[in-house]
Write a structure and sequence with these properties.
- The structure is a single chain.
- With 396 residues, the chain is of the alpha+beta class.
- It has three domains: 94 residues, Uridine Diphospho-n-acetylenolpyruvylglucosamine Reductase, domain 2 (2-Layer Sandwich), CATH 3.30.43; 151 residues, 2-Layer Sandwich (Uridine Diphospho-n-acetylenolpyruvylglucosamine Reductase, domain 3); 114 residues, Uridine Diphospho-n-acetylenolpyruvylglucosamine Reductase, domain 1, CATH 3.90.78.10.
- 23% of the residues lie in helices and 23% in strands.
- The chain contains nine helices and 21 strands.
- The strands form six sheets. Strands 6, 7, 8, 11, 12 and 13 form a six-stranded antiparallel sheet that branches.
- A hairpin with a 5-residue loop joins strand 11 and strand 12.
- The longest helix is centred in the C-terminal third of the chain and has 19 residues.
């Protein structure tokens, strides 16, 4: 694999007085392993493939090999070959929630291209099955057009269906885990399995696919259980205000809910738009933290009762964007080739020509400043590819 220049740039002077002490942000990244000679693969693939264009953040080096299996059989064949050959592998779908190392990935990148839809009646419900390669918002648009209620509040989320149950994607008061009926996966060495939705351990931005099932399983398709003719249930104040309805009450139509969600997301640069200067991001970089009630109480004592917060399992959920702003960061904050979105402080953006090292450097600054000022540790949301460490380990 070619040398993609993975070393961090040299130190810079602080940009202004408020940034004093931030110039030491470049914590050394792990060195990339020595490139290996991959065995010949008995399936269609490409070699030395640039990964940055396959991600919404547009940073990172190249993959030694990339395969795009078109169905579950082909996916199982690819996985079995990689595991039997000892070739490291990773999955990239829509590339909207990943950060790729500047050294790229010395192994096989799998990009599923199963675009099928299937609809089956199940009593009063419908079961909608989509291949892992289907764009998530394409699936949502289909269900809304057909009048199937359940995922309209998840409109506009970039990425592919295969990532939805892994991340338990959610927005505006709803999570996909609420409607997942089944997930088909390819197991290590090419086995197959179907798991029920209630076996997946869904919680806030979590699932067993990120925990005890993070053993190399690859999602091949997802089945959602939706309700024909069901109105949207509005649980989020901002969405209720946009629709002019009472929070917790039904929305006018599924289409109206979808339109309102997309409009809200567009105002925050949370939909992909080529003309948007904030477009190069991986969405929300940090998850909303769940903290102990005592810490939440301390923050209310300091800042008043208007702090955005919600009851959650294990404590109180806080707004990561609010914490970032209270730590002194403004929308549009720029730090060289990276910065914060001018519309949403939770999105770290590539301002042009950035590298993964720049992105991680700014993330470390934000995270350490929030902890120093507010005592809250922010947890990164993206998947980190080619670093040799998990996101949690990178920020320790």
């Amino acid at each position: 694999m070619r040398d993609t220049g993975g070393t961090a740039p040299g130190p810079r002077a602080p940009l202004d007085a408020r940034r004093q002490g931030w110039q030491d942000w470049r914590v050394p990244l792990p060195l990339a392993p020595f490139p290996q000679m991959l065995p010949s693969a008995p399936f269609d693939h490409r070699t030395d493939v640039a990964l940055a264009p396959l991600t919404t953040l547009d940073v990172g080096g190249a993959a030694s090999m990339l395969a795009e299996p078109f169905d579950e059989d082909e996916l199982a064949h690819v996985v079995r070959w990689a595991d039997d050959s000892g070739v490291p592998r990773v999955v990239i779908g829509g590339g909207s929630n990943v950060v790729v190392s500047d050294d790229g990935f010395d192994g096989l990148v799998i990009r599923p291209t199963d675009y099928r839809f299937e609809v089956e009646r199940a009593g009063a419900d419908v079961l909608v099955t989509a291949g892992a390669g289907v764009e998530w918002d394409e699936l949502v648009a289909f269900t809304v057009a057909e009048g199937f209620g359940g995922v309209e509040c998840l409109s506009g989320i970039p990425g592919c269906v295969g990532a939805a149950p892994i991340q338990n994607i959610g927005a505006y008061g709803r999570e996909v885990g609420e409607v997942v009926d089944a997930v088909r996966v390819v197991l290590p060495r090419g086995g197959r399995q179907q798991v029920r939705g209630d076996e997946c351990g869904f919680s806030y931005r979590q699932s067993r696919f990120k925990q005890d099932w993070a053993d190399g399983r690859v999602v091949s398709s997802v089945t959602l259980r939706l309700r024909p003719g069901a109105p949207a249930t509005i649980r989020y104040p901002e969405l209720a205000a946009a629709l002019g309805v009472r929070e917790g009450g039904p929305a006018p139509t599924l289409a109206a809910t979808r339109d309102a969600v997309i409009a809200i997301r567009a105002r925050k640069s949370m939909v992909l738009a080529p003309e948007d200067p904030n477009r190069r991001s991986c969405g929300s970089f940090f998850v909303n933290p769940v903290v102990a009630p005592e810490l939440a109480g301390d923050l209310v004592g300091r800042f008043g009762t208007d702090i955005p917060r919600w009851d959650a399992a294990g404590g109180v959920k806080l707004s990561a964007a609010w914490l970032i702003e209270r730590a002194g960061f403004e929308r549009g904050f720029a730090f060289g080739r990276v910065g914060l979105s001018s519309r949403h402080t939770l999105a770290l953006i590539n301002r042009g020509g950035a590298r993964a090292a720049d992105v991680l450097g700014l993330a470390r600054i934000v995270r350490s400043r929030v902890f120093a000022e507010l005592g809250v540790t922010l947890r990164p949301e993206p998947v980190f590819i080619g670093f040799g460490r998990t996101g949690e380990e990178l920020f320790q």
